[in-house]
Design brief:
single chain; about 260 residues; alpha+beta; Jelly Rolls; 2 domains; about 40% strand; globular; disordered N terminus
Length: about 260
Amino acid sequence: MTRLRGDCLIVARIGDRLAVTSSMNCFAVTSHTDCISVAKGILALLVSFSLLTTPVWAAPASSLGTVVYADRAHVGAAQASVSVGATIFTGDRLSTDQSGSVQIRAGAARLLLSSASTATFSQDDVSPAATLTHGSATFSTANSKAFTLHVGSAVIRPNTNQPTIGQVTVLTSKELIVKSTRGSLSIAVEDDVREIPEGAAYRVVLDPSAADPQGPRGAGTKGYGGPPIKAAKSKFMWYVIGVTAVVTVWAFHEVFESPDRP
């Protein structure tokens, strides 16, 4: 009888151990499952947070150039003053006062904004670019992909890889004057592309239906003569207005290449 009780006690203890072991296994399985669920929840939260904050952490606008000379020049709608050494970024709008000017170095190009001028900077494929909306701009380039200037629907750039200097003056939203002081320029409106040879100057009318038979207006139009040159499927009209003087080449050489300039 005593032996039977002892056997029963042993069996009971074994049963208790099995129950504890089973409970521990169940707890381990449950804990492992909970860990996986928690990890998945944290991962989903991190992904959601990254999607929400991506626009805030987006890359800043790229740098296009540096101001190397500034006199009564401003940047942005707030008209903050521009100083030498300032960095110009994509989307920056520069303007000058009636007696001001500003010069920007952008890679293998330089752009000079004359008095009472406004231009907004951008990036065209592989080259820095600017859109001139008021006044006059003069650019100097070392190759054909160094710089592009936009005026309305017109795109003006160097025509060759030779050193080039061009000057553009906005008369109205549809009219401009383009001069090639050194090297040749290319002017294009959509698929209508033409060359302006070295020393030539043209008045360009972007809306042929609004062409003015009275001749060009504004500064730099002396020497106008002859009928407009118009192609069969032209997107613009242009008028020869004269040939730039050799002394002008020397003057721009001093502006852009003299070591005495900043």
